[in-house]
Amino acid sequence: MPSEKDFSKEVIGGAKVSFAETVRQLELRGFELSVTSTVRQRPKLPLQKIFKTLIHEFRAFIRVVWGVLWKARRFDLVFLNMSAYSALVASTIWIMCRVRRRPLVIRFFGSNLGVIYQRYGPLRLWLIDKTCLRSSLVYVETQRLHQELGERENVRWLPNTRNIVLPPHIIRQDKDKVRKLVFISQLRMEKGLYEMLEACRSLPDGCHLQVFGPQMPNTDFSLFDGHPRATYAGVLKPSEVPMVLAEHDLLLFAGHQQAEGYPGIIIEAFQCGVPVVATTVGGVSELVEHEESGLLVEPRSSQDLKAAIERLLDDPALYRRLCGGAERRGEFFRSSHWYARMAEELRKVAVS
pTM, whole model, 2 decimals? Predict the structure, then answer.
């Protein structure tokens, strides 16, 4: 994964922000770190050049593995942050760490292994089970994934966390009205961009949705053409996100990816006192407590999304309760105590 200083070179996603927070928290606790990117750039070559593509993939694979193991010579452990889709790289690093007698700690991003099974079949799960899941420690993002892995003593639940602190002059005061809606994410269609814009199309006068995020290959910007209640407002730097959240009343998250973990933008909204209307995908239904810190709706349904928004427009008491619940939920996901526990566990592994 890239470090925070590399953010300007690549599109920012939730896993990158979470990784940067991990680096920051461990450095605060006295760890000496050296970051090696495991991102492999895939060239866009025509189908007839498949051989060149395979050669490029193989070279990138070797470069990643060698980069990690070269640095492992002078460090006490290897800490690999990955999605379960990266099983081949992770399994190879696990084997090499065994050869070099270096403990390996793995952190999985995402919600569950069932999605991996559906996409890749049992072989990749078998590979993960025989290698990665036998690492010294395995951190998983969701409670569902923790349960799927059973009673393994080396598995720990480490949710996505944030530590948003708002300056006093931008702390939200008016918690009675829902007028300003916001969506902040990469503009992938699987994030529910179409459903969200459709849901907001016929909202009452005075309600408006601002959409922030980088354009992606499948972004359909024609959806904004002539939209009466939504505006594309550009790309935010990570440092700008808290202020923008605090200036809005409600976060929308309409994604339909079943591999979704705990979206960091939802946690950031909670810590700014902003509730969310979100879909029941992946770990979102664990993160958002229905009718306590937000409202949950079925994915791919603009009608359900619209109904949830209108419910909050018509029920100020419910909205106030959700604002309070969002603040409480956000406090649970403050970074400090989670990383204090991690730091203690990593030190034990490093000296074992």
Answer: 0.88
